[in-house]
Amino acid sequence: MSDHHKYQFRSLHRVVGVLLARMNSQRFPGKILSEIAGFQILELIVSRLRNSFGDSLRLVLATTRDSADDLLVNRASAIGLTVYRGSTNDVLLRAIEAAEYLNGTHLLRLNGDSPLVEPLLIRSGLESLDVEGIEVVTSRGQTNLPYGISTEICSIERLRLLHLASTDVEKEHIFDVVYRLTPERFVYRIGRDFPARPDLRLTVDSPTENTQISEMIHASKLNPITLSYWELLGS
Questions:
Q1: CB neighbours of 70 closer than 8 A, spacing ≥ 6?
Q2: pLDDT digits (tens, 9 = 90+) for 82-96
């Protein structure tokens, strides 16, 4: 995709895509640097977003200060990705600080186990931010969507306030407190009009799922950087 075809997000909001990842995953250590269809997951996520948004969407890797993540930091730096290192257990605080590091007003959550992040869904979310009074934009709960492509955006100001009221579990699962304490009138829900593919599971929690996604991409004969989930042949 040439530069002039990239989607340019223009708004008063400064949205930062915060990629949450670390090497010491309990179920699949090092999965962020594992390979899918010829790309490390880290590289694939970043490539898909850069291909669609260019420089109009700021990106940052939010990882920990643990020495185990030094390899991840080095790889991110090698592909030109900004890195923020923060708390290991307080993932919510780490995400907030990473977005603030790039002077963001809003945080777009990106998960290191979701290699086929869907730019068109993110675009829908970005455009929804200008709806008056909206603090949170989310596709969570849309049963037509595959597991593993959810889009969640929240204002940093609200996240800062919610962090004060979050439990230890909510500090690990960062949007749980958002849904618990945000009135529905401040939440804008997206994704219901996207193609229905509930048969797909596009998250990587094990080497087996890594292989399954790779095989789907290969069977579909699609470019991993530009494909959309509804173009995949099936799980």
A1: none
A2: 999 999 999 999 999
Backbone phi, psi, residue 187, to 5°: -110, 130
Would you say domain 12-231 falls under CATH 3.90.550.10? yes
Query: What is the tens place of the pLDDT at every residue in 38-58?
Result: 999 999 999 999 999 999 999
Q: What per-residue confidence (pLDDT) applies to 235?
A: 54
Domain ranges of the chain: 12-231
The confidence band for 5, taking pLDDT boundaries of 50, 70 and 90, is low
- Rounded-to-integer distance, Cα 208 and Cα 8, Å: 36
